[in-house]
Structures are given as structure tokens and as C-alpha cells.
Amino acid sequence: MKTNTQQWTETEQKIAQEALKKAYTRETEALVAEINQKASQITQISDIWALNDYLNSRRYSIDGKYDSRESASVFLLAQLVKEKWLTLDELTDLTPSTRAKVAALAKSQFF
């Protein structure tokens, strides 16, 4: 059952995919910096296992969020705006109605 009823134009699909690439790059670069900082504070084996658990959790989260088999949705774009990996200004080329949906969802308590 398809839950995303948003109809994307070919242009919007390209815009959304580029936005997803930007967000993915930003999020993964931030994770690398965070892990470097955390790794520098390791002093015992339990710190290593805690870091491993954290990495597994983040990998699951990021891989699921940016699953390339799924097309972009207004929900995902809104989530990325809310998490500050994207800005609404980066989505100005979407149709006004799609951009309005993203903006409304990003402001909601949905996520």
C-alpha cells in the first residue's frame, strides 16, 4: 500500500534527489566529526562497546532515512528541514504547493 500520495514531476524528483544528497552529505560529515571527537575520549573497553552501539544505531537511522529505493517524499524533506539538514530555501524550485506542504510538516509535531 502506497502511503505517499504526492505526485512528483520529473523536475521535482531531481530537485528532491539533489536535496537528499546535500542532507546526506551534511549528516554524514557531522557524524564523522562527532565520532572523531568521541573516539579521542576512549579510555577503556566499555567506551569502545558504547561507541560501537552508537554507531550501529546511527547507521540504522541514516540508512533507513536515505534508503535510495524509496523516492523522496514531502515527509522526508520535512523531517530533514526540521532536523536542520536542509533549509526551505534549498527547496525553492519545488512547486509552491509542495514547498508549502514541506514547510507545514516541518513546523508540526509530526516528527
Features:
111 residues, mainly alpha, elongated
Low-confidence stretches: none
* Multimerization state: single chain
Q: Average pLDDT across residues?
A: 89
Please estimate the helix content. Answer: 55-70%
Overall structural domain count: 1
**What's the count of strands?**
0
Task: Give the helix/strand class.
Answer: mainly alpha
Describe this structure in words.
The structure is a single chain. By secondary structure, the chain is mostly helical. The protein has one domain (11-107). The chain has four helices and no strands. Helix 1 packs antiparallel against helix 2 and helix 3 (74-82) crosses helix 4 (96-107). The mean pLDDT is 89.
Please describe the topology of this protein.
Layout: H1 10-39, H2 45-65, H3 74-82, H4 96-107
Helix pairs in contact: 1-2, 3-4
Please summarize what this structure is.
The protein is an all-alpha fold. It has 4 helices and no strands.
